[in-house]
Amino acid sequence: MKALVYQGPGKKDWIEKEKPGIEKPTDVIVRITKTTICGTDLHILKGDVPAVTPGRTLGHEGVGVVEEVGGAVANFKPGDAVLISCVTSCGRCANCKRQLYAHCADGGWILGHKIDGTQAQYVRIPHGDNSLYPIPEGSDDEALVMLSDIMPTGMEIGVQAGGVKPGDTVAIVGAGPVGMSVLLTAQFYSPGRIIMIDMDPARLELARQFGATDVVQVGAEDAAARVLELTDGQGVDVAIEAVGIPATFDICQKIVSAGGNIANVGVHGKPVQLHIEELWIKNINISMGLVCTNTTPMLLKTLKSGKVDPGRLVTHRFKLDEIMQAYEVFGNAAREKAMKVIISA
C-alpha cells in the first residue's frame, strides 16, 4: 500500500509500505476512504513531537470501510463504514473508566504518533470496538472527518474546559480549523459575544459567517488593547488559545477578566511565559489537555440533526496520491486560503 511517512524534521515521503494486518484480537483493519491533515501533523514535521520517529505513517483522522476484524471484535464486521477516532481507548483501564480516554493505559493518541496512522490506504485500529464509530446512514463523509479530532478537541479542551456559559464573552485566539471548531461548538452554550482573533482577514471574514460577533486582526491593531476596548476594559470571561505559540498564549493572559478562564487548546513546541505575578490576584483558572473524544457520540447526533455542519470547514479536496500537494496547500494556509483539506481514496 502507499502511505505518507515522516522521515525526520522537515522531511516526509509518499512511499510504498507493507499493508497492516491483525496483531491482536481487538484490532480492526480499515480501508481509508477519506482522511485529512491536522495542524498537529505540521507540528510533528517541525520536530515539535519527538516521540514520532522516522518511518512513522502520519495522520489520526478519517473515515473508511472495515476490511478485517480480530477475533475479539464484537461491534464491527467487514464492509461496515466507520468513523476513526483520533484517540484509541481500551475501555477497561482505570483512566478509560473515568472517560479519560486520552490517557488510556493501552492507547490514547497513538495513531500517527506511536503507531502508524491514517494517511495511507489502510490503517490498523487497536481496540476497534471502543475506537471506531458506525457511520449513520446518509451522513456527509467530509463532515464526519471533522469529528475524528478537531470538533471534539474544540468542544472539550476549548468550550467545556473553558466553562463557556450563556451570556459569556468569549475570545478565541486563532481562526484555524480548531479555532473554528471552538467557534461552532461554543454556540451550543449561547455565549453573548464571541470575539475571533487572527492575522488573516480571510479567516476572520469566515469566522463572521460562522457566528463570531466581533473580529480582531493581529498586526493591523494591538489585539489585546482592542479586546479590552470592546469589553469596556473588563476583559473576556473565557479566553481560548488555539494556535500553540507563546505570543497567542500571551494575548489570552492579557485579555482574561477577573474570575475568568484561559483554555489552552494549541499544541506548544516551546515554553511560554506565565505571568503569574499579574494573574494570581485575578482569580482565574487555566486549563489545557489532550482531547478525550467523550463528546464524539453527542457530536454525531448534532451532525445528524443538522444542528452543526463542520463540513463547511472544508476548502480544498485532493486524491490520496496527491497528498504531497495537499500538505503544500495546508502548510501555506494563508496563501492558499485553506481551512481544512479532504483527501479521498
UniProtKB/TrEMBL annotation:
Keywords: Metal-binding, Oxidoreductase, Plasmid, Zinc. GO terms for molecular function: oxidoreductase activity; zinc ion binding. It comes from the Bacteria. Its cofactor is Zn(2+). Residues 24-136 form the Alcohol dehydrogenase-like N-terminal domain. Residues 177-303 form the Alcohol dehydrogenase-like C-terminal domain. Belongs to the zinc-containing alcohol dehydrogenase family. This is Alcohol dehydrogenase.
